[in-house]
Every structure is written in structure tokens, then in C-alpha cells.
Amino acid sequence: MGFLDLGDSAVKKFLLAGATSLALALTGAAHANVTPTLVSVTPSAGNFLYTYKFTLDSDQGLVSGSKSAIFDFAGYIPGSVTSSDPNFAAGTELFTAGLLTDPAFTDDPTIINLMLTWIGAPYRISGGPFPETDFTLTALSKFRTTRFDGYTSHAVKNNGPAVGKDTFNVGPIAVPVGPGVPEPASWALMILGFSGVGALIRNRRRLATLAT
Fold first, then answer.
1. How many CB atoms lie under 10 A from the CB of residue 40?
2. What is the mean pLDDT of residues 26-35?
3. Is 41 left (phi over 0), alpha (psi -120 to 50) or beta?
4. Which of 46-55, 105-114, 116-125, 196-205 has the lowest mean pLDDT?
5. Nearest to 142 by CA among 47, 4, 42
6. Quick one: which of 17, 92, 119, 163 has the most CB atoms within 10 Å?
7. Buried b (16+ CB within 10 A) or exposed e, 136-162
């Protein structure tokens, strides 16, 4: 999508997040259970409507309180988050606790997290695998430009010897970001750049002094 604005630091975070998720999956600590994807960003009355698709994997089920969180949805318009399914409560939090988090990303406690919480009866908690199921969450932001941040999801295994056991999934997801707000890694690169320029100026002055 043309509006996606990702720098080198964001790409590095994306790759690190993918590697982290893969490592967790290989160790059995986590795997894909509920995975969000940004489907579209469309103008809406001066703001921008973000549409996310959440995919419930075939070997996963949901119990009351199963949650998915998208971290740091900047520019959130209060009251705008909605879900396509009445069995989900769509809401927000400033800080999300009690779920697995991806070490490649941090949860900024000053920026809204989008939350999707299952409030219906137990769903597909045994007898799987089943066909994948998609759910939709939408929310408005003041900002159109995006960057990668993290998501986290909780579900339960619906088949095999681990049936009924909690599963967790983490990874990268595109979220809105305010203009002129560099990521921490970008700040580090900028500081290194300024330091390099300063050192270059000092060396040139030193060479000029020696020449005279």
C-alpha cells in the first residue's frame, strides 16, 4: 500500500519480530493462533479508518477473556473501535498486561492499544482442527502514515494432547504514527549521525590548524 512509511529501523524490527515469533513457535511456547492483518486505510470524515482482519487458526479456540491487542495505535479517535462479531468486545487500553509480548517492540503506556476480547460462549475449544475463521476490527485515527509495532494474542489449543491449553502469538502489525515522530532506533541513528558530523568538523579544523 502506498501510504506505508517504513524506515530501516522498522524493517529491522519486522525481521526481528518474525524471527522471535518463529523461535517461539519452534520451542512450543507459541505459534500462530489469532493473527491480525491490516487490510485497508481509507479516508473518513477528515480521519482515517483502519480495518484489521483477525484470523483464528484451524487448531485454535476461544474462551471467555481470550484477548488480542494491537499496540500503540496513535491518533485514536475515542469511541471509534468496533468489531464485526457481537461475541467480541472491542475496546482500548493504555497498557496491556498478562499476555505474551514481543521483545522487538515496546508497549508505550501513553498511546492507546486496540483490544479485541472474546465475551461469547467457548468457541471451537475441542474437536479441531476447523476451517480458519476471520473477524474484523475497525478504528479511526487522525494519522494515515503507518509503521510497524507489535501485537499479542491469546487462545486455546483445540486438538491433540495439548487440547484446552493456553496459546499465545506475537508479531509485527502496521499501526498509525504521528508525523515527525521517529522511532527509538531512528533517534539512535540520528544521534550517531550528528556525532559523526561533529567529529568530521573537528577533524577538518584540526587539519586546517596543522596546515597553517
1. 12
2. 58
3. beta
4. 196-205
5. 47
6. 17
7. bbbbbbebbbbbbbbbbbbbbbbbeee
- Tell me if 113 sits within 8 A of 93, measured CB to CB: yes
Q: Are strands 60-61 and 113-118 parallel, antiparallel or unpaired?
A: unpaired
C-alpha cell at position 42? 481509507
Burial of 165 (0-12, 13-18, 19+ CB in 10 A): exposed
d(CA 112, CA 141): 11
- In the block, which residue shows the cell 467457548? 122
Say what percent of the chain tops pLDDT 90.
63
Rounded to whole angstroms, the Cα distance separating 27 from 29 reads: 5
89 to each of 65, 92, 185, how far by Cα in Å? 10, 10, 34
User: Does 31 have pLDDT greater than 70?
Assistant: no
Q: What's the pTM value of the predicted model, to 2 decimals?
A: 0.73
| Residue 169, amino acid | N
3-state secondary structure 107-158: CCCCCCEEEEEECCCCECCCCCCCCCEEEEEEEEECCCCEEEEEEEEEEEEC
**Residue 122 C-beta-side C-alpha neighbours within 13 Å:** 8
- H/E stretch holding 8: helix 8-27
